[in-house]
Amino acid sequence: MTAKIVMIGGGSGLPVIIKPLVQQNVDLTAIVTVADDGGSSGLLRDYVNIIPPGDIRNILVAMSEGDQDILDLFQYRFKTDDDFLAKHAVGNLLIAALTEMTGDISQAIAKLARYLKIKGHVYPVAKQPLILHAETKHGEELKGEASITAAHQALDHVWVVDNEGNQDIQASPEAIEAILSADLIVYGPGSLFTSILPNIVVPGIREALQKTKAKQVYIANIMTQKGETDAYTDAQHLQVLNKHLQAQLVDYVLTNDQEVPADFVDYQKWGEISKQVIQDPEAIEQEGAKGISGDFLALRDAGAFHDGQKVTDVLLSLVEE
Predict the structure, then answer these.
(1) CA triplet 108, 123, 48: central angle to 5 degrees?
(2) Structurally, how many domains does the chain consist of?
(3) Hey, which of 24, 45, 77, 156 has its CA 20 to 30 A from 136?
(4) Rounded distance, CA 96 to CA 259, Å?
């Protein structure tokens, strides 16, 4: 029987794991945040009133078994001096166009999935654009993912509202069904407060995560994120996740134990100063989870990333247990 794996997140972290995972005999689903308001995605959500397409585009490409030339075109981003089209990715424009043509983001994604020959399912966590809000440790309220990231303040919790400010939001039924029927739920890797948690706080998603019989795994980030998780241990990431889940639902935490060379990461290129996430296995156990420590490190592009194949091997072993 084919294992059903559901990945929850957004940003650039999920595709790293998805690419090797789709090569396995699994039924893979990605549930993606719709609260991105920066760059091309932010512009399209404001002018066309659709959910931000960037994260969906990247995951579609990661799941695709299509022609590489088509994928390169789908990912092509217009140059900054192209004025009207500046910074827009072709795939974002196609998602916007198909959403307008079909009147439904799910139908738009389904069409693109056929065109790109994807192996898996991609569901937005909700079918309407959402606005992320955060409260800092000092009680200040921040609005919008881009503003939250730029503020560089310690965060306490997040929530989402629709464009009218309402918190009564409907999660995508497909996303809820995928969670309830899953064998394994995987959180991340990705920005904790702006990629993972914006999915969990959508009404209906948390309840499904509390109800599912699936094992649940958190892939801890290799590096901290400025303004979001400064000096966080792997256990502190988990504590925040469990706080938003309103229960100790996570069964396993995957943490990299290989040292990132001090002079390897180009902090100027990646736009932030970060430090390697410290392991705290005892605190992980206190949060009701089992720590899985290993060499999950891939050094490339002057940055520290997860080795997708090594993480995939562990995820498959957990499914088989």
Answers:
(1) 45
(2) 1
(3) 45
(4) 42
Provide, for the chain, the percentages of residues in helix, strand and coil under a 3-state DSSP scheme, each rounded to the nearest 5: 40, 20, 35
CATH classification at residue 8 = 3.40.50.10680
**In the numeric block, which tokens belong to residue 162?**
């629709």
If you count them, how many residues does the chain have? 321
Taking the C-alpha atoms of residue 139 and residue 129, their distance in angstroms, rounded to an integer, is 25
The token pair at 56 is 């969906």
- H or E segment at 305? strand 303-306
Handedness of CA 43, 44, 48, 54 (dihedral sign): negative
What is the rounded CA–CA span in Å between residue 117 and residue 119? 7
Which pLDDT tens digits describe the chain residue by residue (321 residues)? 799 999 999 878 899 999 999 999 999 999 999 887 655 555 665 556 677 888 999 999 999 999 999 999 999 988 877 677 777 889 988 998 899 899 888 899 999 999 999 999 999 999 988 999 999 999 999 998 888 888 888 899 999 999 888 888 999 999 999 999 999 999 999 999 999 999 999 999 999 999 999 999 999 999 998 878 988 999 999 999 999 999 999 999 999 999 999 888 887 777 666 889 999 999 999 999 999 999 999 999 888 999 999 999 999 999 988
> CA of 315: how far to CAs of 76, 183, 221, 286, in Å?
31, 11, 16, 22
Q: How far is CA 53 from CA 34, 74, 191, in A?
A: 8, 12, 17
Residue 68 zone, left/alpha/beta (φ > 0; ψ -120 to 50; rest) = alpha
Coil, strand or helix at 125: coil
Cβ(222)–Cβ(304) below 8 Å:
yes
Burial class (CB in 10 A: 0-12, 13-18, 19+), 22: middle
Nearest to 270 by CA among 155, 191, 158, 153: 191
Residue 39, SS3 per DSSP: helix
CB 198 within 8 A of CB 168: no
